[in-house]
Amino acid sequence: EKESENAERDLRCIHDQSRGQAHMDSLTLESQRTLESTMSDLDRNESGVKDYSWLTGLQWLFRARRALSYSYPAFHMSGDDLFKDGMTTSEAMKHKLEDQQQQLESVDLSMIEVPLEQSDRLMDIRMQVINLSVLTDTLCRMYDCIDELLGLQLTTHHIAPYNS
User: Fold this and answer.
1) Most buried of the four, 37, 92, 147, 161, by CB within 10 Å?
2) 34 close to 2: Cβ distance less than 8 angstroms
3) Biased-composition ranges for Basic and acidic residues (predicted)?
4) Which residues contact 67 (CB under 8 A, 6 or more apart)?
């Protein structure tokens, strides 16, 4: 039984590590697509829109990727062995963190699928990006959850705060 639990934990750790690495890889690839190139593409298509402030959604996508890539290791830092006596607070916080990770991944995928090239739908796309950016900012606050999880360990820890 103990071996089964250890194997399950190890598989979960490997899964989370690969998810975190996938987000870092995506972040690296997507960072090559800059805000300037997106604006020049829109200018080239003569979209008629000259207010590009909403295109900061691309930066929100990068933040979401970064937050996700770092959140997976944080999940394992809470240490199940410290809560053998059934502290339900730890489990509740882990579930909350997992829920926020899943929501952020969903928003992340939605942002990737926004078709910036369709100039006839530009106003709809603009509103979609703005809404997804606000949601991303909210979900990136999962660091509050991580900080609470780590706080349960009775040891000193430092985590970089999230600033939008």
Assistant:
1) 147
2) no
3) 1-18
4) 104, 139, 140, 142, 143, 162
